[in-house]
Design brief:
Blueprint: H1 13-16, E1 20-24, E2 31-37, E3 40-46, E4 52-56, E5 59-60, E6 63-66, E7 69-72, E8 93-96, E9 100-102, H2 106-113, H3 119-122, E10 139-144, E11 155-166, E12 177-187, E13 190-197, E14 200-215, E15 218-227, H4 234-252, H5 274-285
Antiparallel strand pairs: 1-7, 2-3, 3-4, 4-5, 6-7, 8-15, 9-15, 10-11, 11-12, 12-13, 13-14, 14-15
Length: about 290
């Protein structure tokens, strides 16, 4: 017997009122498309003149087009989805990397994205390798989003001063790099990282992960990159990122519980997990229930 999808708790306003990417614009041809968000069935209709209509039953939902994606919300979202100022730089390439279904909480997927310690063991020879396994101390903090007043100025989780030895930090990297990272969690299901770019000594590459929670223990992950790379073929860039994410999916789908525990006694953190600890504490302060235990 198939279990009905679980909608969010009515009190879970931070989840209901958020924007969610529900598909890449290039992958939504004219016509009707079906998907799910927070246990609710959605009908996406791309109309002939390029606009979108998203409905949940008889309810018309808000929509926005940003960062190569169609966004919607089941509640009352801020005026626009997450701001990424670098996305407007004319020499950056927008690389939409394909949607990946994951049988795990979307919160688990975000937390995995924030984890430096797994690089040498899960992404061996790419993002890490032995004996370079130590995670150096880094700094975590809460910041008020000032990049876009239209988003409402919500509090975000940031981690700075992150660095890690990586054999191939990017598709365009020709040798190993001491890669510097900055992590940003903009909403419970939207996270970004800014990392050393092999092609620019000053500006970082930006990689975003937009997570669409379809059920408490299932989601679709939409990775998007904003790269300073004029020469790598688009297909190679997508394949590089998909290879990394599919390695993560194996780990994510074998984690138990599938939901993310927010009780600090549930899992024992190490020094390398300070960003995860900050993320879970931030979720708990917002009374996040959907996808969490």
């Amino acid at each position: 017997m198939t279990q009905a999808p679980t909608p969010p708790d009515p009190q879970d306003r931070a989840v209901r009122d958020a924007w969610y990417a529900v598909g890449f614009l290039d992958h939504l041809p004219p016509g009707d498309h079906h998907t799910s968000l927070l246990g609710t069935d959605l009908l996406i209709r791309r109309q002939d003149h390029g606009t979108f209509r998203v409905t949940a039953g008889d309810t018309l939902l808000p929509t926005a087009l940003r960062h190569g994606c169609l966004w919607t919300s089941l509640g009352t979202p801020p005026a626009s989805p997450v701001a990424i100022p670098e996305a407007a730089e004319p020499d950056r390439r927008l690389v939409c990397c394909g949607s990946v279904a994951v049988h795990a909480s979307g919160l688990r997927v975000v937390e995995n994205f924030l984890d430096l310690a797994h690089f040498p063991f899960v992404h061996t020879g790419i993002l890490g390798a032995e004996p370079h396994t130590e995670v150096a101390r880094y700094h975590t903090e809460l910041r008020r989003d000032t990049t876009d007043s239209m988003t409402g100025g919500a509090t975000e989780v940031w981690a700075t001063d992150c660095r890690f030895h990586q054999p191939q930090a990017a598709r365009s990297a020709q040798s190993a790099l001491e890669t510097r990272y900055i992590y940003r969690v903009a909403t419970p299901f939207v996270t970004l990282l800014y990392k050393t770019c092999p092609n620019d000594p000053v500006r970082p590459d930006v990689i975003a992960l937009f997570v669409q929670p379809t059920a408490p223990d299932r989601c679709l992950a939409h990775p998007v990159m904003f790269l300073l790379d004029d020469f790598s073929p688009q297909a190679d860039l997508v394949q590089f990122q998909q290879r990394i994410f599919l390695q993560d999916r194996i780990i994510l789908e074998n984690q138990r519980p599938r939901l993310l525990p927010l009780d600090p006694r549930a899992e024992i953190p190490t020094r390398a997990d300070s960003l995860s600890v900050a993320y879970r504490r931030w979720l708990k302060e917002q009374n996040i229930r959907y996808g969490a235990t």
